[in-house]
Design brief:
alpha/beta, Phosphorylase Kinase, domain 1, Transferase(Phosphotransferase), domain 1, 8-stranded parallel β-sheet, 6-stranded mixed β-sheet, 7 helices, globular, ATP binding, serine/threonine-protein kinase
Length: 447
């Protein structure tokens, strides 16, 4: 992060990335002195409500973040920026998105947590659009023109006012990560956990919270300890992990929907085990088994460059058998979830943990959606979308495999991947078929 004083003193010449958090109410004109090099501008967490009409003078600007400000309209000047492709205006008070505000080259548009009721038909002209975050708005429909957004891979529609899931959306050839919980057409949380008798409902009084283990968009995870002896006896362990939801809408949707989907899914050997839930009026949470020692994240989140695809630590390597083992477990897990009428919405390596034996633990239901109110055809389409996500994961992992070690089996797994990712959604295999195909491959590799 840089300072306004540094900028005004001319000390930032030549930089490509600028971040200012200075309670700004006006755009500092000195930013234009960086026009020859500036590519990323982050003005989030200020008090801005407008941008200068000559913003397009920043001819190299590719990425602009202006979240947590006071914008009521997405600035039209954005559309004049010649290289701008990533736009983030999360948590403003945006009601209006003018057609002129959307650059033709937009790849990544973040408008989460605003007050948007409609989007312009121009959305359909964004041929490069890959990632679109719209959770926490007031949308009642999407522009029909978006059927032309054939490169769209990730879309977050949760916590809106959508009356139905557009049929064209489920046919997009590259759509891979879709979240829509918290809309009128989706699962209605009347008494969300009435049918989850197998998972006890506890309160914070039953738990002693310890150190923080991690934090995501929807909540904070703590190490914990049961104070209730009955829960120690019921779960077989005094030590637990506790996820406390933050309570507000996140980039993926409402915490209550995440809790619902997690509990509806139930148990599976490759899902992080849920021991209890907290459904207090003022606090929602999950009590989970602690991750055993030896497990680590399979991947890292996407970068600004990869946009929708995971990244991996330098030096990462996998054997073909390891990739097949992971994919087989994931196919089985996702088959279980869809049998329970739940989609995950965030099938990514960074949401998975593995040990040296490639035993898989999968979690984070923040983008999950309950499919119970969808038709059979819509549910099958949702499964096909997540089958593509499995294909993307296999493709990502295969990039770290030495193809020459076993060219024949590499080609077989690549063929499975290609079937999962084919552009005609209706022709993709179901998870049970993918699982069987990978099982046959694993038998061959071990023979």
């Amino acid at each position: 992060m840089q300072t306004l004083a540094q900028l005004k003193a001319g000390q930032l010449q030549g930089i490509t990335r600028l971040q200012l958090v200075e309670n700004l109410t006006e755009f500092p004109r000195e930013i234009f002195d960086l026009a020859d090099t500036l590519e990323i501008l982050d003005l989030s967490n200020n008090q801005l409500s407008s941008l200068p009409e000559d913003l397009h003078r920043l001819t190299h600007l590719k990425i602009l973040f202006a979240s947590n400000n006071r914008f009521e309209t997405l600035p039209e000047v954005l559309g004049q920026c010649p290289k701008l492709e990533m736009i983030g205006f999360k948590a403003n008070q945006i009601r209006t998105v003018p057609a002129a505000s959307l650059p033709a080259q937009t790849r990544w548009l973040i408008l989460t947590d605003n007050q948007i009721t409609t989007l312009p038909e121009r959305m359909g002209q964004l041929q490069r659009l890959q990632k679109l975050a719209l959770a926490g708005n007031r949308l009642t429909a999407l522009p029909a023109s978006m059927a032309h957004c054939r490169n769209l891979e990730l879309i977050r529609l949760s916590a809106n006012s959508l009356e139905k899931l557009p049929s064209w959306l489920l046919r997009l050839p590259k759509l891979t990560w879709l979240a829509f919980a918290g809309n009128p057409f989706s699962h209605t949380l009347v008494d969300p956990h009435a049918d989850v008798a197998s998972v006890p409902n506890v309160t914070l009084a039953d738990i002693e919270l310890g150190k923080k283990l991690g934090e995501g968009a929807s909540g904070i995870i703590y190490q914990g300890r049961w104070l209730n002896p009955a829960m120690v006896a019921a779960t077989g362990s005094e030590h637990i992990a506790v996820k406390l939801f933050k309570g507000e809408v996140t980039s993926d949707g409402y915490p209550a929907d995440e809790l619902d989907c997690c509990l509806t899914t139930g148990e599976h050997p490759n899902l992080i085990k849920v021991l209890a839930h907290i459904s207090q009026k003022d606090q929602l949470g999950l009590v989970m088994a602690l991750i055993p020692a030896g497990f680590a994240n399979l991947g890292l989140p996407p970068s600004l460059d990869t946009c929708t695809r995971d990244t991996f630590k330098p030096g990462t390597q996998f054997s073909l058998e390891q990739v097949a083992t992971i994919a087989h477990q994931l196919a089985d897990t996702l088959a279980h979830m869809h049998a329970k009428q739940v989609s995950h919405g965030d099938v990514y390596a960074h949401n998975m943990m593995v040990n040296k034996q490639m035993n898989l633990l999968f979690g984070d239901f923040g983008a999950a959606s309950n499919l119970g109110n969808l038709s059979t055809l819509e549910q099958l389409a949702m499964e096909a979308i997540e089958v593509r996500a499995l294909g993307c994961l296999i493709e990502d992992l295969l990039a770290y495999v030495d193809e020459s070690v076993n060219a024949e089996h590499y080609a077989q797994l690549s063929a499975i991947k290609a079937a999962c990712m084919q552009s005609d959604v209706a022709l993709r295999p179901r998870f049970i078929e993918v699982k069987q195909a990978i099982a046959s491959l694993l038998i061959s590799t071990s023979a």
